[in-house]
Every structure is written in C-alpha cells, then in structure tokens.
Design a protein that fits this description.
mainly beta; Porin; 14-stranded antiparallel beta barrel; 10% helix
Length: 533
C-alpha cells in the first residue's frame, strides 16, 4: 500500500478551477485498432501495402495505391469485459454493443500511362477511433497505513487544508457551509463536499495560524466502487494522394475528430454502526479536434514486391468542454449517538445545472515506419512500428495559456508508447483470402503513476487505473468478386491494469489501498461490404 513520495509539487495558485487529468488525456489520445474488416483482419499492418481505405488514417499514401473507385461500409458487434480482483474478491462486468465502425469512399483519377504522375486520388473515411463502453466494479476493506485509516475522506480533508492554508496567507477564510463555494475558482469541490457532508472536521490551530481539516473515520472503511463509461471518438479523414511512376506514392490526410466521453462513478464507504457515505460523480468531456497526417510509400526498385512506408501525424488539437456534477449522501454521527442523513447535491447547489469548464488538449506527435511485401498475387505481408510520447501532451486554457499543473502531471504520469503491428493475407484462390494479425502496445503509464487534482479542482472522481501492455489478435476472411466484395474480421484485445479508488497523503508519503488487479478484454466482430467501380 505504501508508495514513494511523488515528485510533483501541488501548485496552490491556479488561473481557474479545473478538473482535467492526465488520465482523461490518455483516454482521449490513445486510439484503438479499427476500420474495415480487411484492415483489422491483417492487424492494421497495411501502412506500406496500401490499397485499403483505412490506411487513410495510418499512412495517407496508402490511398495512392488505388487504381479504381471504392465504396465501403463496416458494421461491428463487440463485447467489452472486465474482471477485477481486490484481495480475493472478484467481480465480472460485461458490456455488449452494436456499432457503425467505418464508411469510406475513394475516387481514383488516372492521369496517364507514361507521364511521371500516374494517379491523383481522393479519399474520405469515417471510423470509430475509440470506444469508451466499459463497466468496472470492486469491493473490499481499504486498510491502514502508519496507524491511520486509508479513506477517500482523507483526500477531502487534505484538499480543504491546502485551500485554507493558502487563503489564510491573505487573511481570508472559506465558508464551507455556503453554496457559493462551488462557484469560487479558488475552491476545491472535494473539500467542500466533505465538509458539508460531515466527513471532515475543522481544526483551529490557534490565532494567526491557518485552519486545517481532519477526516472523521470511526473505523476502517469497507468500500464499494462502480464506474460506467460511455461514448466514443468519431474520426473523419479527408485525403489527397499521388502516384508517381508506380514507385513513389505520397499522401496527405486532414483529420477531424468528435469526442463524446461520459464517465459516471459511484463510491461508497461503510464504517459500521450505521455510519458511512456514498459519492456519485457525473462527468462528460465533449468537443472536437483536427490534425494533419503526411505519408509516403516507396518501392526501392522498379517492380519490386517490397514497399517501404513512412508517415508522421501532427498532434491533434482539441477544443473540449468538461461538464461535471456530484452527489454526496452521508450517514454520520453529528449530534448524539444516532447517525443523521446529509445530502450534498452540486446540481441543486448550482441552481439546477452542472458545472462546465472549457479547455484545450494537444496530443503527441506520431511517427510510423512500415514494410510491405507481396509474393505474386497470393501472399501479402505487412509489419510496422509506431511511436507516440504521451508525456508531451499539453493542457491549455481557451485563451491558449498553459494549464501548468495539469501539463506537469502528464509528464510525471505518462511515457512514450511503442506499437508493433504484423499482418498477413493469403489467397489460396483469387476470390478468397485468409488473414491474420497481431498488435503489441507498451504501457502508457509510469509504474508508480497516481492521479492528483489541483487544490482548486472541481473534479470528484478520484479513481484511476494504470493500464499495462496490450496485445491484440486478429483473424479474417474475405471474398472478392469482379466489383463486389465482403470481409469478416475477428479481433480480441487484452490488457491488465492496476485500479485505485483514490490516493492519500500520510506523513509526506502518497498511499493507496492495495491495487485492484483488473483483466480487461474486448472481443469484436466486423463485417464489411464494398463495391469497386
């Protein structure tokens, strides 16, 4: 349960109250393998091979391989599962969903047979770059550290103490019993909710000294947590590409992104004897973003079956809105020996609305190198390597001023991710194809990463998961007629993560409950119908 002192210094002075974290940034920035069934069936390792509309999003030069027009539609069905294990207590959650995963169109324009420029092609592709549909639960005793109970209420007390200590330097005091605190840019919602819900006590340290706050913890907490994530990221790509001498292919893709991410959490602590509390957090991030992708494919020798691909993607520049609300219900001993019920509802406190905060997010640069090799018309092989340094992501306010605390936390929490993709397509007869692929992505989070809010944060979802390496396995089969084609792909992704409902600071050490070991998996079946003309 003990964790080393985190190197980040919690900045007390903020331009505006905020709630965005490195965990939100990673959820939005890291994409999934998705697209046409052929592309997925080959593990997405088609950046040098090209000839599939889904390469518009990995290597834009892949569209230049086309010599005819193409229209395609892909539908999917997925099962997303989690199995959590906390101190031997196991909970399984599954989520089932149908989806529209891909719609693409390529218009191929032949320039000539002997001119240097042979084709100028245009492409459009929509695909679901990220799905957030996932449920997770855990339950168990939170434990102790250095003789003190570990609890989310301790996090509330720490935030309230930090606010008081800073404000008292200027001779000011928060009125934690007032609804106005939820609109004060210097206030932290966790501290306010904890105080109003009788979970933390005010400590008068004497004249001239700042107030501090301590949690009221009558016993070790028996906790239950549940989260529901919904929504996704829709990606729209617009491409132009060029074919020179049937050896040199170049392309550019302008990408547009629509984000709609919902995360609702429920956390309950039972102290026994009828005392305890629950905290529900309702969160949404929505908005849009743009990026530019540039790519090239080269045949090193004329008529060579070997192709080499290179591509670079600019950061995605997102303009986003964070919407949040919280509901605390507590049963604590306020006066006498009988627990009394207290409800703190930020929606009601704010006059029937949730709180909104606009912010900008800049994702990492992406670099991709790929190889493709064909043997006659019956075998195609692809391999590629991709790198993104997630520690370089930046948060900014709408006026483009950097959100220093949040950006620093990204650097402390995240790291570079390497992704390897391999794929093969075998055609035993010209009309039918068999496909297989494999992806490996390294972990995005540092080993001891933790989630911290600024002291004036409006965030109340204190939970976080440190995901580890992910492997994806794919299989596929396809039929090609003179014009019509159909493909089916099966994808299975699996990764482990360490889940924590909160972090405490005790004796200058960041402490969590024992990690909840979570096995995450997603099974997806994709079906593509297409027509070349």
């Amino acid at each position: 349960m003990k964790r080393g002192i985190f190197t980040a210094l919690i900045t007390l002075v903020m331009a505006n109250a905020s709630a965005q974290t490195a965990y939100d940034a990673q959820a939005i920035a890291q994409k999934e393998l998705n697209g046409t069934a052929r592309f997925v069936g080959m593990g997405g390792a088609m950046s040098a091979l090209g000839g599939d509309v889904s390469t518009i999003a990995t290597n834009p030069a892949g569209v230049a391989i086309y010599r005819s027009n193409d229209a395609t539609l892909t539908l999917g069905y997925s099962i997303t599962g989690t199995e959590s294990d906390y101190l031997g207590s196991s909970i399984v959650n599954d989520k089932y969903r149908f989806s529209l995963d891909n719609v693409g169109l390529v218009i191929s324009n032949k320039v000539g047979n002997v001119t240097p420029l042979r084709y100028v092609n245009f492409g459009f592709n929509y695909h679901k770059s990220k799905s957030f549909y996932r449920n997770m639960s855990m339950q168990g005793m939170m434990g102790m550290f250095d003789g003190m109970y570990i609890s989310q209420a301790r996090y509330m007390a720490q935030q309230a103490s930090n606010n008081q200590a800073w404000l008292n330097q200027y001779g000011e005091q928060f009125n934690y019993g007032s609804a106005d605190i939820y609109t004060d840019n210097d206030a932290g919602w966790l501290g306010a909710i904890g105080y109003q819900g009788w979970l933390i006590d005010e400590i008068d340290n004497g004249e001239g000294k700042p107030y501090t706050y301590e949690p009221y913890l009558p016993d070790e907490a028996d906790a239950y947590f549940q989260s529901k994530e919904r929504g996704g990221i829709d990606q729209f790509d617009f491409n132009i590409s060029f074919n020179f001498h049937e050896r040199f292919y170049f392309g550019a893709t302008l990408g547009a992104y629509a984000v709609d991410y919902h995360k609702n959490t429920f956390y309950d602590e039972d102290f026994g004897n009828g005392e305890g509390y629950s905290l529900e957090s309702f969160n949404r991030i929505h908005g849009s973003g743009v990026d530019l992708k540039l790519g090239a494919i080269v045949r090193p020798f004329e008529y060579s079956p070997l192709r080499i691909g290179l591509s670079i993607h600019t950061p995605i520049f997102y303009e986003l809105t964070y919407t949040t609300g919280a509901l605390l219900q507590s049963d604590m001993v306020i006066d006498g020996d009988t627990p009394q019920k207290v409800v703190v509802d930020t929606y009601e406190e704010l006059g029937g609305r949730d709180m909104e905060r606009d912010f900008n997010l800049q994702t990492p640069w992406l670099f991709n190198v790929s190889l493709g090799y064909t043997v006659g018309n019956f075998l195609a092989l692809g391999a590629e390597y991709e790198y993104e340094d997630f520690s370089t992501m930046k948060f900014k306010y709408p006026d483009n001023m950097e959100m220093a605390f949040e950006t620093d936390e990204v650097g402390y929490t995240l790291k570079g991710v390497s992704t390897y993709r391999f794929g093969a397509e075998l055609k035993p007869i010209p009309e039918f194809a068999l496909r297989a692929g494999y992806n490996f992505s390294s972990a995005a989070f540092r080993e001891d990463a933790i989630k911290l809010f600024p002291d004036n944060s409006i965030g109340t979802d204190t939970d976080f998961s440190n995901t580890k390496d992910m492997s994806t396995y794919t299989l596929g089969v396809g039929y090609r007629g003179n014009a019509f084609y159909a493909d089916v792909a099966f994808k299975y992704s699996a990764y482990e993560s360490d889940f924590y409902p909160f972090v405490n600071e005790i004796d200058n050490t960041f402490v969590t409950p024992e990690a909840t070991k979570v096995n995450n998996n997603r099974t997806q079946v994709l079906f593509t119908l297409g027509y070349r003309f």
